[in-house]
Specification:
With 258 residues, this protein is of the alpha/beta class. Helix content is 38%, strand content 23%. The chain contains 11 helices and 7 strands. Helix 5 links the parallel strand 2 and strand 3. Helix 6 packs across helix 8. It is globular, with a radius of gyration of 18 Å. Bound molecules: benzoic acid (BEZ). Benzoic acid binds next to loops.
């Protein structure tokens, strides 16, 4: 799932085929969030960062009337090809006014570094009494992978910190932002979720960590990814050769007062 306009994530591209190959688990793991949202037939729902529409489809199947938005025009086009109402839009500059009963977001908000601008747009998009239910990377998410990327870049004399495209807040940070805008927070918590990957970790790096990889010339990126994989082998790969990403999610449910 993606949502900030692509030019606000330097270096990161969303290739729908690559995403489908390496990131199908993102939508699969989002099903419990749909249960937390508990969509009702006929409700108007905004899926913020709808990606290729896999979860949007699930909301529609429950009878909701869903608009999906995604920062990637390519991903929004794939969602439209599933018959969904999906549009390319910048999640940091939403322009809906009291149009939805709920805003739903899975695995997208961590790509939107202007958190207060996102929350403001969600607030405006909701009708009074509307719900904002989401899950994103939380504090500590992919900490091991990020540390390995930074260390391997450092060996090449490159400081990768400024290329970090992600915002992984603590519950306290995100609660404060939601409440500052006026939301009532019903629940917010970190969930440790080590996540088995469908392919070697180099493929995850290629799909999600392009901003870091692009700090070296194209012909050197394979070596860089191989070195990061090597550094992660003892902690992220089991004896059978299966890779796991050190995911930590922040899941929340909030409400705009009626
Ligand atoms: C995540 O869903 O936790 C995630 C996605 C991309 C990069 C880093 C983390």
């Amino acid at each position: 799932m993606t949502s900030a306009a692509e030019d606000s994530i330097p270096g990161q591209r969303w290739d729908p085929d690559r995403y489908a190959r390496n990131a199908r688990f993102v939508a699969d793991l989002g099903a419990p969030l749909v249960d937390l949202l508990a969509p009702e037939p006929g409700e108007a729902i905004l899926d913020l960062g709808c990606g290729d529409g896999a979860l949007t489809e699930m909301l529609v199947a429950r009878g909701a009337v869903v608009v999906g938005v995604d920062g990637s025009a390519e991903q929004a086009a794939v969602a439209r090809s599933r018959g969904l109402d999906a549009r390319q839009a910048d999640g940091e500059a939403l322009d809906f006014e009291a149009a939805f009963d709920a805003v739903f977001s899975n695995a997208a908000l961590h790509w939107m570094r202007k958190a207060d601008a996102v929350i403001e747009g969600v607030w405006r998009a909701l009708r009074p009494g509307g719900r904002f239910v989401g899950e994103m990377g939380g504090a500590g998410n992919v900490a091991g992978i990020t540390a390995a990327l930074l260390a391997v870049l450092e060996r090449r004399g490159i400081d990768g910190r400024a290329a970090n495209p992600w915002y992984f807040p603590t519950p306290e940070d995100y609660r404060r932002r939601l409440e500052a805008r006026g939301f009532e927070v019903r629940s917010i918590a970190l969930i440790d979720r080590p996540t088995p990957l469908p392919a070697p970790i180099a493929d995850w790096l290629d799909t999600f960590a392009e901003s870091f990889l692009k700090l070296v010339p194209a012909e050197a990126r394979g070596d860089l990814a191989a070195e990061v994989s090597e550094a992660l082998r003892p902690t992220h790969r089991d004896a059978e050769g299966r890779w796991t990403a050190d995911y930590v999610r922040l899941r929340f449910s909030a409400r705009k007062p009626a």
